[in-house]
Amino acid sequence: MLHTHPEPSPTMPHHEIPLSRPDISDLEVSMVSEVLRSGRLALGPMAEKFEKLVAARAGCTHGIAVSSGTSGLHLIMRALEIGPGDEVITTPFSFIASSNCILYAGATPVFVDICPKTLNMDPAQVERAIGPRTRAILAVETFGNPAYMDAYASIAARHELPLIEDSCEALATRMAGRPCGSFGRVGVFGFYPNKQITTGEGGMIVTDDERLADLCRSMRNQGRAVGHDLANRPQSSTVGAWLFHQRLGYNYRMPEINAALGVAQMRRLDDILAQRRRVAELYMKRLMGNSRLILPTIGPETEMSWFVFVVRLATGYTSQERDRIIAGMRNHDVGAADYFPCIHLQPFYREQFGFEPGMFPIAEAVSQRTIALPFSSNMSEREVEIACATLEVMIERENLRRG
Fold it and tell me: The domain at 270-402 falls in which architecture?
């Protein structure tokens, strides 16, 4: 089986044990080659196959393949007609795209603090944050943990608001038997190379709402007519559907090559997930006795698909100590990262909205102590041991610095 290693980037140098690496087999190579030989590189049958596979796994009727999870979130904002003057409740502890998509629409993100155990939004604070300008709740399954998704859905229903489920980190995770992507009115998955499966770049919108699905299909394809719109297109022989643009749209399509990667990965999904669970269990077993670390907390009703493995330093460690630990691991050829810096403290958000430290204390305290460890389906037990041992040595070094 072929396994690839990521190319180093300016911000994430190559390590002997990288932070992540995609699981690519001969099947993916064969299916991509099949598309290349077909001559059909866009808007073809491979994307449709991929849409059906992902939608079925999410328990949804419709799948809309897009160029990224971020573009999927943007299309949802447009399809729900969220715009200037509107507010969307979301988390400050996430990858920045979950909030940026709100800004793309001209709306305002309203952050609420998180639960320190699950790292997802505190449902009580979500309810309190709802006001006259609230148009939606955008809930993120942080690190793939679906905790409180059912609670957010109930809150959204009581207030007649759409729940947008950012499942970009949660493909194939289930809570109480229910798959992620199916809790909200609409959900989005992401397929960046560090995700459970990858298409290189890509995303998938999933929903049971046919009208919303058609709007997203149209807008991802330059606003071209789809579904019911087709009946309204000009009948002139000189203007076909390809040059008939029903609404403002974007080039957010997923190419056939990327979709071929996705189809192959979905066919191998159960094996990939089993390997990711294996690696997570190795980490849990190896680190569970370390009192200086807080390990992921997963509810008994949750079947995790494991996007990443993120630990936290115990209370009392500073962000400077955490950063030195990460730097020390990297210097010893073990990938590590600080997942996630708080969105509201990113320079642009502070400048735009006047956010200051202390506004969301739990999210800030968590983000200052997180360490993402190397994680991928093809990690060996030896690599996990080296990562854990290196982490513990770097923690001990910080303890010695304290004197």
Answer: Alpha-Beta Complex (3.90)
